[in-house]
Amino acid sequence: MSMNWNRNLTMLLDFYELTMSNGYLANGMGDKVVVFDMFFRSIPDSGGFAIFAGLEQLVDYIKNMEFTDEDLEYLREKKIFSEDFLNYLRDFEFACDVWAFAEGTPVFPGEPMVVVRGPIIQAQLIETMLLLSINHQSLIATKANRIHRAAAGRPIMEFGSRRAQGYDAAIYGARAAYIGGCVSTSCTLSGRKFGIPAVGTMAHSWVQLFDSEYQAFEAYARLYPDNCILLVDTYNVITYGIPNAIKIFNEVLTPMGHRPKGVRIDSGDIAYLSKRSRAMLDEAGYTDVQIVATSSLDEYIIRDLLIQGAKVDAFGVGEKLITSKSEPVFGGVYKLVAVEDEKGGYIPKIKLSESVEKITTPGFKKAYRFFSRETGKAIADYITHHDEVIDSNSPLTVFDPNATWKRKEISNFEAVDLLHPVFEGGRCVYTPPPLSDVRNYCLYEIERLWEEVKRFERPHRYYVDLSMALWQTKQRLLLDNGQLTVDS
């Protein structure tokens, strides 16, 4: 199957978006202005935070939405859509306002990372691609950052293309992994498309093809003397791999005037093998030669290896990163939260559930992050009605919306608006920053979180608080619907 980067993905939507939209139009509601929020409910791997990613791909999708004649004929054959609706799709022109967090922002459950305001049909039709783009890349960026932090400053290379669940997952997963902290990727296409450094040397098949490991190493060293990293575990790391690598360094690279870069260990007891290899390399005078470890790694294995004193300078991480194997779903949802009335105001809407975590926060909202002016660290996030004003020059009392007796007065803080305009009346006002800038921003913003929030096990809960006015609106709707009470 060939890949066409100019694919028309407009029809990548759930069928119910079409049936509902046809119904909106039939009931004279097609132009009803509504507000949708995209948020998520729980952090993967029970972590302290997630990372928002995938916005650039969502923007590309919306900018290129176009229902073709073939699309319309396919829908006509279903015999359930009116010609008025098919004509609406034929003339489709996006006219919504969209706000979103900056890519790379650390995010927390319940906060509106993307807000869409506009005609109900248009806001509804982008649901699937919005969730697909944000959910996938946020999941992989979050996992990549956990692995990045576990490595304690050692480079992480994303090596998962062949284990990704489809080629788009490989390509965009590499993008997300780079945002999360990886320094490079094995995916050549991602390197070309996004400017991510693409790296790789040899596989075991290279070594096996030659009559001896020494010959395989020699051929590679002569071909790539400036970037010679030898895979030393095809047969036996300590008995053959490292000794043969040292011979090549002495007999081939040094006479050529080049310095070796490293060795890679892809199997066995990495802690033991890396310590033995380090000692052998150091004794031979190659203290600067790096040891790279691969082999089904994740953040926990990397952390344990370092605790055990493994002498590893860099890690290549594949399947457990690119699939987020430990928790492969990012539970982002897209919910209607407000409807515009005849006077231009907004009627808040709520979705109730017996599962408390599935109850939505109603209304057209804004999101802020409060930073201490003394420490520079994030204090809490704060969700308000869209027209509330934050006075950061006066003390403010914040409270846990689920345990209202937990209150804290904050002062000397900076309130940063997290939602930025992306589309205004359907016109794109967003220019994607270079991916390297997104990555740098992500790592900088994570440094502004307290270390307690970054623990792998039982991290400190970072609070996402509601303003008093928004909390009261939510409580009123809960009571008005008569299914839940304030005490439940």
The biggest beta sheet is recorded as: 7 strands, antiparallel
Query: Per CATH, what is the topology of the largest domain?
Result: nicotinate phosphoribosyltransferase
CATH architecture of the largest domain: Alpha-Beta Barrel
Q: Give the class-level CATH name of the largest domain.
A: Alpha Beta
CATH H-level name of the largest domain... which superfamily? nicotinate phosphoribosyltransferase
What class, by secondary structure content? alpha/beta
How many beta-strand segments?
21
pLDDT under 50 segments (min length 5)? 483-488
Structure keywords:
single chain, 2 domains, 16 helices, nicotinate phosphoribosyltransferase, TIM Barrel, 488 residues, 21 strands, globular, seven-stranded antiparallel sheet, 36% helix, alpha/beta
Topology of helices and strands:
Elements: H1 15-26, E1 33-40, E2 50-51, H2 55-63, H3 69-76, H4 83-90, E3 97-100, E4 106-107, E5 114-119, H5 120-125, H6 127-150, E6 156-158, H7 167-180, E7 184-185, H8 188-194, H9 204-209, H10 213-223, E8 229-231, H11 237-256, E9 262-265, H12 270-283, E10 290-293, H13 299-307, E11 314-317, H14 319-322, E12 332-340, E13 346-348, E14 365-372, E15 378-385, E16 396-400, E17 403-410, E18 413-417, E19 420-424, E20 427-428, H15 435-447, E21 464-466, H16 468-480
Helix pairs in contact: 2-6, 3-4, 6-7, 6-13, 7-15, 10-11, 11-12
